[in-house]
Specification:
Layout (H helix, E strand, L loop, with lengths): L8 H29 L8 H5 L2 H11 L2 E7 L2 E7 L10 E7 L13 E2 L4 E4 L6 E10 L5 E10 L1
Antiparallel strand pairs: 1-2, 2-5, 3-6, 4-5, 6-7
């Protein structure tokens, strides 16, 4: 006759240790990967940045720029228009194109103005969401910053 299984305290303890061990291991692995791939801070000191935020935003909004971003094969097309819909030629243009969650694919586009839009050769971008952290300078010296998101199919 087969011996009947008896659930003891040691069996319950082993089950709890195994279950929580798996949960803790998964959490540690996910936390390490999140910290390792995090792109970093937006600003070094958020309090200092907040002191001029409203004035900077008002100056940027006073420019009246409408900015859009599109991909065309291996070209990135940045359109900057004024309130009347005319193309805007800026004094300076820069930015970083990359993924939102890691910096391994970041690139700095080199922009050229074609009379209508700013165009940069980025190579073929991989599928998914991309962010352009744009920084432009108007002819009057006003700084314009905007994060533009684009989805590549």
């Amino acid at each position: 006759m087969a011996q009947e299984f008896r659930l003891t305290g040691w069996h319950v303890l082993a089950g709890f240790v195994a279950a929580f061990g798996i949960i803790i291991t998964v959490n540690v692995v996910m936390a390490v990967n999140a910290v390792r791939t995090f792109p970093g801070l937006e600003v070094k000191n958020s309090y200092v940045a907040s002191q001029t935020f409203d004035a900077d935003r008002a100056a940027q909004e006073a420019l009246g720029w409408n900015v859009t971003l599109k991909t065309d094969g291996d070209l990135l097309r940045l359109s900057i228009r004024d309130d009347l819909g005319h193309p805007v030629q800026v004094a300076g243009l820069g930015g970083i194109l990359g993924r939102a969650t890691n910096v391994s694919q970041d690139q700095t586009p080199v922009w050229t103005f074609d009379g209508q839009d700013y165009v940069a050769n980025t190579g073929v971008l991989g599928q998914g969401y991309w962010n352009l952290r744009l920084q432009a300078e108007a002819q009057d010296g006003t700084t314009f910053k905007q994060r533009l998101q684009i989805y590549v199919k």
